[in-house]
Amino acid sequence: MTTIQIYDPAMCCSSGVCGEDVDQALVNFSADVDWAKQQGVQIERFNLAQQPMAFADNEIVKAFLVRSGPEALPLVLVDGEMALAGRYPKRAELARWAGLADGVEAGATGCGCSGRCN
Predict the structure, then answer these.
(1) Residue 47 in contact with residue 6, Cβ under 8 Å?
(2) What are the percentages of helix, strand and coil residues in the chain, rounded to 5?
(3) What range does the domain containing 17 cover?
(4) Cis preceding-peptide flag for 74 (omega within 30 of 0)
(5) Relative to the CA of 59, which of 41, 51, 67, 75 has its CA 20 to 30 Å away?
């Protein structure tokens, strides 16, 4: 089974979806992570502010931080290999990495546009 690990920048809480000024990208990503977990995908998230040892103990993550700095986070590892940095993945990317058929929810048409094709 594929393991996806997300190394988040320092945030106020584990998901980043808290406080008064919530980033919509984090809201969307949290929903996509919940969806992927419901599909059986193993996803782990690490917050730099709350779990700094997870960053220090992983040689790939530690080297990335030395080279690029914490402002380059988030960093996504898929089965221990760097897959994405600097932004959160889309649902379709999570689905592809996990080997799911696609990232489109049930009920969509074959093209994945849910009948909204132009």
Answers:
(1) no
(2) 35, 20, 45
(3) 3-98
(4) yes
(5) 41
Domain harbouring 9, CATH code:
3.40.30.10
Structural domain contains residue 55 = yes
Looking at residue 96, what is its pLDDT?
A: 96
* Burial degree of 116 (CB within 10 A; 0-12, 13-18, 19+): exposed
Token code pair at residue 95 = 């689905």
Q: Are 30 and 89 within 8 A, CB to CB?
A: no
Q: What is the pLDDT along the chain (118 residues), one digit of tens a residue?
A: 899 999 999 886 655 556 566 678 888 999 999 999 999 999 999 999 999 999 999 999 999 999 999 999 999 999 999 999 999 999 999 999 999 976 555 433 334 444 444 4
